[in-house]
């Protein structure tokens, strides 16, 4: 076990445990926040494992997860919008913390990978991960001002 795999194990254990707890307990809005943040924990964990075990295919998994995770959250936000209308999730600090964690992991792993195609792929994963997390969190908390739905 090297430092990369140790960091991945710590991130996945703490983050996945918290996400499972959030999804399994409490109100609907807590479960949606936990579901959204699970992508922000598992994706950097995959990047750390890819570096620790020299498995570039894990970066491909992280890329797919960074793309599809926020899309899943947006689907849930749309389907459950009626149930969330009066009780919107609020997790600004947690969202920014998860985005910062993902950004730091992507930058560190990119620096370790060195310049080249692998670094470009890692930076794309980082942009999708951080951007997708912030967009999905914004959608859960009520969307952008001035875009209220007017459905009867």
Average pLDDT level? 87
The secondary structure category is mainly alpha
- The 3D shape can be described as elongated
Terminal CA distance reads: 58 Å
Polypeptide structure, described:
- With 152 residues, the protein is an all-alpha fold.
- It has helices at 3-24, 28-53, 57-79, 81-84, 92-113, 117-140.
- Helix 1 packs antiparallel against helix 2 (28-53) and helix 5 runs antiparallel to helix 6.
- The termini are far apart.
Key terms for this structure?
152 residues; mainly alpha; 6 helices; 80% helix; elongated
Layout of SSEs?
Blueprint: H1 3-24, H2 28-53, H3 57-79, H4 81-84, H5 92-113, H6 117-140
Outline of this structure?
By secondary structure, the chain is mostly helical.
């Amino acid at each position: 076990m090297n430092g990369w795999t140790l960091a991945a194990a710590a991130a996945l254990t703490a983050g996945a445990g918290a996400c499972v707890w959030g999804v399994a307990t409490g109100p609907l809005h807590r479960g949606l926040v936990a579901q959204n943040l699970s992508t922000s924990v598992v994706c950097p964990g995959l990047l750390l494992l890819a570096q620790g075990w020299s498995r570039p295919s894990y970066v491909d998994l992280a890329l797919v997860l960074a793309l599809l995770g926020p899309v899943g959250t947006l689907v849930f936000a749309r389907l459950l919008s009626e149930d969330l209308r009066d009780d919107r999730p609020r997790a600004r600090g947690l969202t920014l913390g998860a985005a910062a964690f993902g950004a730091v992991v992507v930058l560190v792993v990119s620096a370790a990978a060195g310049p080249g195609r692998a670094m470009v792929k890692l930076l794309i994963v980082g942009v999708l991960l951080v951007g997708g997390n912030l967009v999905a969190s914004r959608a859960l908390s009520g969307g952008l001002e001035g875009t209220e739905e007017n459905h009867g």
